[in-house]
Design a protein that fits this description.
The complex is a heterodimer of chains A (407) and B (648). Chain A is α/β, with parallel strands linked by helices and 407 residues long. Chain A has 16 helices and eleven strands. Chain B has 22 helices and 17 strands. In chain B, the strands form five sheets. In chain B, strands 2-1-5-3-4 form a five-stranded mixed beta sheet, with helices on both faces. In chain B, strands 11-10-13-14 form a four-stranded parallel beta sheet, sandwiched between helices. The chains are: A alpha/beta (407), B alpha/beta (648).
Chain lengths: 407, 648
């Protein structure tokens, strides 16, 4: 394979290696939409983009919409800082993704699939186009899959342009339609009116890759991997201060302790779970588990060693959000900039109680008033760092003087 | 449509309401008398208003689907001030864009909401540079009003110490001060959705987001048509028109100069709003007194040149029809398009230059008056035209561009020196300590002082067409128009539908009046003919008309089409008082038609001032050589310059 595979970074055994994409697709071709959806419901599969919405539910919504054309969009705008597992799936297991899209299409009643590929993965496009071409010639894609004239599904690849916000599904749809990637209002939802106003399912690369596996091996094979509340397994992109960074598959319910041990990051000072918009967990939280009920995640794990300045981390993330907000709504566009100003200031001159109150009020407004998930979650990292590592800030300038004077 | 209307029960602040599905929470609350603050939402930019512009009969569900499903969002819900709490939902919801499709319980006021709104206002202020007292929107600024209501009296998130943005070129007619922009995007949506121009756009993301033009050009170098609709929707002082008041004050105070002013019909129906009057309170004659008091030497009525326009444009139409239908001359392009609206002119020059031969060559009333003032009037009164400063009061920002066009120097001087907007004039009155509604009334000055109904209705969409039809029908049939339309009210061309069509059958023809005898030998060829006319307002509707003509659709069968760049026509012009809304424009229209009904002279060809100028000055009649020199113009295709022209 002439693509830059990251297979060398795979840290443990991946389930994807033990399945053949098209067994699942073949089975699905002989199933009704109801049967497919009930299998996916039984598996408990949730979206892997970060929000963790039950996949089958999304499909059901889209299926119940009337309309002559519907779309399955694969969100390959893997932009969350610290994630690279979708890249592995696209280089090494693209058939799983394409088969998953076709199965989703059958379940929803969609004949068109679109893979929205992030601009930074442009080099992958030729490889993916070749896979698509092969699948068309093998009757796994196009008109009449498996020579069944009622099963039509084709996929086209569309490129992103490098904006983080376009990983947000409604901004992605705006981008697909040729406009700037601004988040849309969320009623109607994409399943009601998405791409070109048609019912559209937007699923993450990994979500779709699990679908043929579930159909082939059965929902219980999948759900047996995780916990009762959080069934299944997940790919994690692990980076940062550890001996063995890479891509790891873990069943849900795995603790951070376990993960840190496996990757050689036992001395971590903190773990950022879920990328820039995720939580920064201190050692006291390392017994927490990666699962829907506890540490929800988009698959990104960043490990910070003892040498790291946590407010440098916070400033870095905040800078990212100030740049990457779509610029539409006020709490996110300006809020993130003001928060960045405040972090820079507190790193120099400490944080007094009144400013802290103001900032906490601001983060609460950003969380509840922002238009989309970006603004709603962009304060998470800062808040969890403030909660757990406040002692790393210098003393407040005025207070330090006052203390010195008193002494 | 099913007559049984399904409704949904919502509870807003404890009040139970039945609403039709798709109603937004904001609309439901407003109907219940609950005020929710907004900065990005505008009554003209909700899905229903947008859709009713194009199809008045569309139900709101189709409207909402069309604009919400895809494409440009009617409400981007970007300011996040209209937030409400919906029971069962984790985050606050923007009421402007939350359609009611299920029963819900909503709270519009709580500490959480109040704090969030205050935080948002303070965030806006943290990027807002400029002093309120020095801003033309002081008092009409929506941001200022909300900051006051929500007690934004601290600077928790700071204020810019220096202007983050440089001031734009003062030569721009549409002035943008990005230091005051809150990125609500009303201007962007207005420009795209009502005007079909998209001169303004959003560029950059995150804290680099800006309202910009193509390649960041100055407005004067962008494909802007200067209609000023963006200004009327801007909640702050980020968009204004070029301020020409200082130059006019200087001219007034210069003892060497004769400073004359013409006033268009639309400002008089609206300027009262700047003095606290209800929309639709006419100020025509109080304004004459005020203009004299601040020092204008003569106050003329643009109605004169509106009637003159009808003569020239009507004669041109009769000539074109004769050439096209009788002489089969392919060079006579039909339908003929009106040319009074300078925003429309620049629009067609930029975007549809192939249609330029359809434009009437007649100048707009402003420019006809300008040309006549520095020739006929100057001669008649023995004034040196070089010393005349010709000012116009217009509802329009594009008139500033029109006055400055190089084609508009037919008197040997710039025909109109300064075109002031209604807003600028209101400011001048205030600077002079004039409380307009309290002034006594006075008349216009002769020889351009006869108030005519045909002139005054130029201010409303359909007005030019109605005035033209009143004259054309009487001229051709030789009988009163009242025989066809009661009270000479030509109702089929009135109203606010974005695109309208009407037909008039000419039952009989009379002899050709002397003034038109140069143009056609007789009217026999018009006997029994059906004159088809079309109307469009808002240049997005102009696009619909032009595309329909290209496709050889029904509008291609029209003989004469009126185009107005601004929604509602001149009464909704970009120079009119702020705020504007469909209701405000309807009230102004009512005032205009009431004036028309009240005047003795309601037909252009009965305006004695116009008849006199044809006796004394344009002796060969309309569309003659002399009238061509002074009252007609030509147009320039601008499409090629959009991409090639290097920014100045």
């Amino acid at each position: 394979m002439d693509v830059k595979s990251v297979r060398g970074l795979v840290g443990n055994k991946l389930s994807f290696e033990s399945v053949s994409a098209d067994n699942g697709l073949k089975r699905a071709a002989n199933m009704t939409a109801d049967e497919i959806i009930s299998q996916v419901i039984a598996s408990g599969l949730r979206g892997r983009g970060g929000a963790g919405f039950p996949t089958a539910k999304k499909w059901e919504f889209a299926r119940s919409e009337k309309g002559d054309s519907k779309y399955i969009v694969c969100n390959a705008d893997e932009g969350e800082p610290g994630t690279f597992k979708d890249r592995l799936i696209l280089t090494d297991f693209p058939d799983l993704v394409f088969a998953g899209m076709a199965i989703a299409g059958k379940a929803v009643g969609a004949e068109h699939g679109i893979l929205y590929l992030r601009a930074e993965y442009a080099w992958l496009r030729d490889h993916l186009e070749k896979v698509l071409e092969w699948r068309r010639s093998a009757k796994l894609l196009g008109k009449g899959l498996f020579n069944n004239k009622y099963f039509n599904f084709d996929i086209q690849i569309r490129m992103g342009s490098g904006a983080y916000i376009c990983g947000e599904e409604t901004a992605l749809l705006e981008s697909l339609e040729g406009r700037r990637g601004d988040a849309r209002n969320r009623i109607p939802f994409p399943v009601q009116a998405g791409f070109l106003g048609k019912p559209t399912v937007v699923n993450n690369v990994e979500t779709l890759a699990w679908v043929p596996c579930i159909i082939e091996k059965g929902p219980s094979w999948f759900s047996a991997m995780g916990t009762k509340k959080s069934p299944g397994a997940w790919l994690f992109s692990v980076s940062g201060d550890c001996k063995r960074p890479g891509i790891y598959e873990y069943p849900f319910g795995t603790s951070l302790h376990q993960l840190l041990e496996d990757v050689g990051g036992e001395d971590a000072k903190a773990v950022q779970v879920g990328g820039a918009s995720g939580l920064c967990v201190p050692p006291t939280g390392f017994s927490r588990t990666l699962s829907a009920g506890d540490l929800a995640t988009g698959g990104s794990i960043i490990i910070y060693g003892p040498e790291q300045d946590m407010f440098d981390v916070a400033e870095n993330f905040q800078h990212f959000f100030a740049d990457e907000s779509c610029g539409q709504c006020v709490p996110c566009r300006i809020g993130n900039v003001r928060l960045l100003d405040a972090i820079r200031k507190m790193r120099k001159a400490g944080l007094d109680a009144e400013t802290e109150r103001t900032l906490r009020q601001l983060t609460s407004t950003m969380r509840t008033a922002s238009k989309c998930g970006l603004g709603q979650s962009s304060t998470k990292a800062f808040l969890s760092i403030l909660d757990n590592f406040k002692n790393e800030l210098p003393p407040v300038v005025g207070e330090a003087k006052a203390t010195a004077a008193a002494e | 449509m099913d007559t049984k209307v399904e409704t949904i029960v919502v509870v807003i602040d404890g009040k139970e309401l039945n609403v039709s599905p798709g109603t937004t929470v904001l609309e439901a609350a407003t109907a219940a008398g609950i005020h929710i603050p907004t900065l990005c939402h505008h009554d003209d930019l909700c899905a229903e208003a947008l859709y009713s512009q194009t199809d008045a009969n569309a139900d709101r569900k189709t409207a909402a689907e069309k604009y919400t499903a895809s494409g440009m969002l009617p409400t981007p819900s970007s300011c996040r001030l209209c937030l409400v709490e919906v029971e069962g939902l984790r985050t606050l919801q923007a009421s402007c864009s939350l359609p009611i499709i299920n029963p819900m319980k909503i709270h519009t006021s709580s500490t959480k909401i109040r704090h969030a709104r205050r935080d948002i206002l303070e965030l806006m202020m943290s990027e807002h540079y400029g002093d309120c007292f020095a801003c033309t929107r002081n008092g009409t600024c929506e941001l200022q009003k909300l900051c006051s209501e929500y007690g934004v009296n601290t600077e928790r998130f700071g204020r810019p110490e220096q202007a983050p943005f440089e001031m734009a070129d003062p030569a721009n007619i549409i002035q943008r001060d990005m230091n005051k922009c809150i990125l609500c995007r009303r201007c962007v949506r207005m420009c795209a959705l009502y005007q079909g121009v998209s001169a303004l756009t959003t560029e950059g993301r995150g804290d680099h987001s800006r309202i910009s033009t193509f390649m960041g050009r100055e407005m004067k170098d962008a494909w802007c048509i200067n209609c000023g609709q963006c200004i009327n929707r801007c909640p702050t002082g980020a968009l204004t028109e070029r301020d020409d008041t200082e130059a006019v004050w200087r001219a007034i105070e210069d003892p060497e100069k004769f400073v004359v002013i013409q006033t268009a019909p639309a400002p008089r129906a609206a300027i009262g709003e700047a003095f606290g009057c209800e929309p639709g309170t006419p100020m025509t004659f109080q304004m004459n007194t005020a203009l004299r008091r601040i020092g204008f030497d003569k106050v003329f009525d643009t109605n004169f040149s509106a009637d003159l326009t009808i003569f020239e444009e009507g004669a041109e139409l009769i000539g074109r029809l004769y050439h096209a239908l009788v002489l089969k001359d392919n060079a006579a392009a039909l339908p003929q398009f009106t040319s009074c609206s300078p925003g429309w002119i620049k629009f067609i020059e930029h975007f549809y230059p192939d249609f330029l031969p359809h434009l009437s060559t007649a100048k707009s009333p402003q420019q006809m008056m300008g040309a006549v003032l520095k020739t006929y009037f100057a001669e008649k009164n023995g004034w040196d035209p070089a010393k005349i400063v010709s000012v116009s009061l217009m509802p329009c920002t594009a008139k500033k561009f029109e006055a400055g066009r190089h084609e508009m120097h037919s008197s040997g001087f710039q025909d109109v020196d300064y075109a002031l907007t209604t807003r600028e004039m209101a400011r001048m009155f205030k600077q002079a300590g004039i409380d307009l509604p309290k002034l006594e009334k006075s008349n216009f000055d002769d020889p351009f002082g006869t108030p005519t109904g045909s002139g005054v209705i130029f201010g409303a969409t359909g007005g030019v067409m109605e005035a033209a039809l009143r004259t054309v029908i009487e001229v051709v049939t030789g009988e009163p128009v009242e025989n066809l339309f009661g009270h000479a009210d030509i109702q089929p061309v009135r109203g606010f539908d974005g695109v309208r069509m009407a037909e008039v059958t000419i039952p009989k023809v009379g002899p050709v009046p002397a003034v038109f005898s140069r143009l056609v030998p007789n009217f026999d060829w018009l006997k029994g003919a059906t004159l088809k006319v079309g109307l469009a307002h808002g240049t997005a509707n102009a696009i619909r008309v032009l595309e329909d003509i290209k496709q050889k659709g029904p509008l291609s069968t029209c003989h004469f089409i009126e185009f107005m760049a601004c929604p509602g026509g001149c009464l909704g012009g970009g120079g009119q008082p702020i705020p504007t809304s469909p209701e405000i424009r309807a009230a102004r229209a009512k005032a205009i038609y009431a004036e028309d009904a009240a005047y003795q002279v309601r037909k252009s060809h009965e305006n004695k001032d116009v008849l006199r100028i044809y006796e004394e000055f344009f002796r060969e009649g309309p569309c003659s050589r002399k009238s061509h020199d002074l009252l007609h113009t030509h147009y320039t295709a601008r499409n090629a310059t959009v991409l090639d022209k290097k920014p100045a």
